[in-house]
User: What shape does this take?
Amino acid sequence: MIERVAVTGIGAVSALGIGADATFDGVIAGRRGFRAVTLFDAADARCRIAAEVRRLDPELVASPEEAADFSRTDSMALVAAAEALARAGARDGRLGVILGGTTGGMLETEHGLLAGPLDRVDPRRVARLLSHPLDVTTQRIARLAGGAQRCSTLCAACSSSALAIAQGLAWLRAGSVDCVLAGGADGLCRLTFFGFDALGALDNEPCRPFDSGRRGLGLGEGAAFLCLEREGAARARGAEILAFLSGAAAGAEAHHITHPEPSGARAAELIRRALAGAGLEPSELDYVNAHGTGTVQNDTMEARALHAALGEHAQRVLVSSTKGHVGHTLGAAGALEAVITVLAIHRGIAPATAGLETPEDPTLGHVLGTARSVPLRAAASCSFGFGGTGAVLVFESASTPLRVRSQARVERVVVTGIAGIGPIGELTPGNVERFLESAASAPGGPLEPAPITLLDAERSRRFDTHAALVTQLAGQALVRAAVGPGGVGLVAGTAFGSVERSVRFILRAADRGVRRANPAEFPHLVASAASGNASIYLGLTGAVLSVSDDATSAEAAVATAVDALRLGGAPAFVAGAAEGFDPVVAEILGPLVTAEGSVLRSEGGGFLVVELESAARARVATRVAQLEGPWPLASAFPAPWPRDRERALVLVATPRERALAALNASAWSTCPRRSVLRASGYHEAVSGLSLAAAATLVGLGAAAEVLVVSSSERSDWVTLFREPETAR
Amino acid sequence: MDSAALKSEIKRLLIEALDLRHKTEAEIDDDAPLFGEGLKLDSLDALQLAVALEERYGIEIPDDAEGRRVFASVSAIAAYVASRR
Assistant: This one.
């Protein structure tokens, strides 16, 4: 039996107030946070209201010097994270930090862009532009918490922070950390506001989720975090347990970039899977905090999904959406609604849906009018987003009796498919040696020929280079693994995604007017657009998300996939990283300068199909290599010693001092070292290509063991590939 | 501008605004449906096309049944544009 996961801390920032209790009190009182937009000029937009956070003060948690560099998203994240840590009280052991979000420091990027041309760059503006990557916020939270042993930053559109909390559950069940601070943060910005406005998705009156007269969603902003730990540790230190996180499920619809799959069948499957993971029958669910955006499409789909998943109980279960109070906070919504759900259970009060007067579906157990006081034993929080991504979390009352749960499987993971690409072409077993030539010198700039050539032109017409690379590499890796797409998950790593495309969108809206913003462009600008597009193109219905960890995003992606596999989340995952050549990033960051000289920026990446060994054996798949790790590089070198130094090899993805020093102090110090850097040029997904090359070398028998060492300014990782064992 | 020239201009606009790089002007039939079948455009394309037509010709496409009739084909768009200029 495994331990339950307890929620011991919560923190939130929303339009209703600073603090989880302030937010929840506002929800229960029926307050609505919408007012005229003040953060930027929205006078020409169709919608001009949003649920903005007021009286945000980052100096509550940081010195004035530090706070001066914060994005609005950083400030909200740090205030909410500090509250969650304080409420959890003194803890010890290894901390993990997981952040879900969509636009990070976009508001500040926009201020920078609209201030003047890029070539007259003020150093402070560069710092602001580079605070755009979501993982900058994660690192700031880790520093606030006094350091973290493991960090992860992910994006799955409007289900981002629900997936972050699901990942926290996976980390605690796998035992890789002792406490997890998981949540999300998203500040309001022009990109999302004008984007949703161009789609005609916003209501200029406060939104009315589930109402038959609803006309769209209302955007909000905020941040929320949960402190999660295993029950035993929480009880041992006498911490107050607010609720248990009992189950989580994530998946994708493989349907459309903006429209939910109308029958609700996929969403229903997620609700059923999350309940099953919690060991609950549908009839045991007392409350559902619905995604309930107020758009025609979402709310109809979600009502159908609740009926399909819960049967007759859908009429009795209390259902509400709190987006009529706090707005749709996008990447923060999953965590903000999780905090509201935890407090609903803890205080025994189910919020009503603000704005709902005439339910479109009166057979659902809507909470109308005012909040209802009633003991809540179990509650679900649902999140769905662009690209068809979704996650459902199940919480239970702290007083629920212990139930027997299945053990998480700590089983070996194998690689069954590989794909990689760089300026010299596709990575194959026949040309892997060319990728490793130290004398090679890759041209900088975009790949030639265009990587999109393998994709159907009609179906990929809106893809940018990044989405095309992810789709092509993931698709090739799956074909080579001979895995069908059903149930398969995708984790795509990227440091930057599509900066140039976002810049173009914002500048166009500024130059030609908000009403001329490109509606079809907007859904492709969210950081998870590439994974969403790839899942739709390839038909993947497992968990689909993007992760961001600078130049080690590939390792973060593969580690996320491995954790999810061991929790039984999908039969297989395809995971890796790709980076498209982005002129804006290239201009700001320039070439990579190492001790051996500078390497020009290019594009490319690599993906692996990973499966549990038992699953690969069961379908008689070719096991190319056994995968160990990826491990974040901490004080002790995490990889085992090489079995035979004569047949072992080290691939260094990016040579940085800290990681090389750790390598030199390890048993791997005398093994030969190679790198793809000279042949591939530099981009943040070089580590993805390195992982692909390492697995290829093991598959060829060119080496018995290959260790990949990757590093960025922020983190270092090691990953080990070994020959698969033939004996059972 | 005569009708053939206007239709040709609208086809170029479609290709550019809707990322139809895989299509040529000759491949787009004047009277074939644009949405669902034919070019297989979707609701996102309809929004994008409305923005593009407004920008190029200064006309507003109503978001109702009339708008849907305007978007039936290249010929229908051309007729609407011609009638509003």
